[in-house]
Specification:
The protein is mainly alpha-helical. 59% of the residues lie in helices and 9% in strands.
Length: 353
């Protein structure tokens, strides 16, 4: 009853915004929430296989670990299940950037602030938005997302396609999204995503250690995956900086910059990526990346999550390698309502040296 009332009231808010986008996306969100079944019903249903139930239980265990051992927000997220047919992801996410600048297009949302991406349940709607940006001269990128956080407005459910994800990936994903519902600073998406990425990665490793043990293949694999992510992050940042240096060169006109831009992209797509592959620890890591239509929007889509990854690791180190204390510090940071939370972190690190 409580959730139905929340959905009803939120529907009124969305309609008052008089936006087709909010109404369309809200309709799908409400539809999924209304069809979600409590996990107790799933476990008791004899028509659902034990394999499915066991995987759902792992996601629930991750959720329990995140609330009890990391200090993430306790709510009913991931306590319900939605069966989706013919779909292996949740949303299509559009990213845009100026063609001659690493400057992401920003979408404004009431209550939540500005975002450098916009999600759509329907691919056709995402494609329409992409074409709109292209008509304005922007580079564009559409990616899929397996989950997103409603920041506590709704009880985000487990979706059936999530059961196909490896446990190592699931632990990272679930804790990442739960972090957004715990700490979120308006108009600071770069901080929000980087911080959630760190907590998701470290929290996922801690969960695997707790569940499977230090000598388990799952726990050991998590370190290889983390190392590969670091290697890729360095590569993406170098890619970003090469383009940034080009665009800041005032001695070149726009046409020259666009020609040189393509040369940089080709370099990172081919020879630099081949060198990168030699460093990865897991087979096929990021093999899909050079197959993308690489442009400024793609780079901005990745840099949002990975520009200052080491900053959060330093905070974790200063908190005695204790993730619970680190999350508490991020909650404290949020309570200070800083205009620049990343600078807040840098000041903190300088003060405690």
């Amino acid at each position: 009853m409580k959730n139905s009332l929340k959905i009803f009231l939120s529907s009124i808010v969305l309609l008052q915004l008089n936006s087709c986008y909010f109404v369309n996306q809200g309709f799908n969100l409400f539809k999924y929430n209304l069809s979600a079944k409590p996990l107790d019903e799933i476990y008791k249903n004899p028509k659902i296989s034990q394999k499915v139930k066991d995987k759902i239980k792992i996601i629930y265990d991750i959720r329990e670990f995140a609330t009890k051992n990391i200090g993430l927000k306790m709510n009913k997220t991931y306590t319900k299940y939605v069966q989706l047919k013919g779909r292996d992801y949740l949303t299509n996410v559009v990213v845009g950037s100026k063609s001659d600048k690493l400057e992401a297009y920003q979408w404004g949302f009431p209550f939540f602030g500005s975002f450098p991406y916009k999600g759509f349940y329907n691919y056709g709607e995402a494609r329409d938005e992409e074409l709109r940006l292209k008509s304005l001269g922007y580079d564009t990128y559409i990616r899929t997302a397996g989950a997103f956080s409603t920041l506590g407005w709704f009880d985000d459910p487990i979706y059936s396609y999530m059961l196909n994800y490896p446990t190592e990936y699931l632990a990272n994903l679930v804790i990442h999204e739960m972090t957004h519902a715990t700490v979120f600073i308006k108009d600071n998406i770069q901080f929000n995503e980087e911080m959630a990425s760190f907590v998701g990665e470290q929290g996922g490793i801690d969960f695997l250690k707790s569940k499977y043990g230090e000598n388990s293949k799952e726990y050991k694999l998590s370190f290889d995956l983390k190392d590969d992510d670091k290697i890729f992050s360095v590569y993406v940042n170098e890619f970003y900086n090469s383009l940034k240096n080009l665009y800041s060169d005032n001695s070149k006109n726009k046409e020259d910059k666009l020609v040189l831009k393509q040369k940089i992209i080709d370099s990172y797509r081919f020879e630099k990526f081949r060198e990168l592959q030699k460093k990865f620890k897991t087979p096929g890591a990021y093999a899909w990346f050079p197959k993308l239509h690489l442009n400024n929007a793609v780079i901005m889509g990745f840099i949002t999550y990975q520009q200052d990854a080491s900053l959060y690791r330093q905070v974790y180190n200063k908190q005695g390698h204790d993730l619970t204390k680190t999350v508490e510090f991020f909650k404290y940071l949020q309570s200070q309502d800083p205009k620049d939370p990343k600078q807040f972190l840098k000041n903190y690190l300088n003060d405690v040296k």
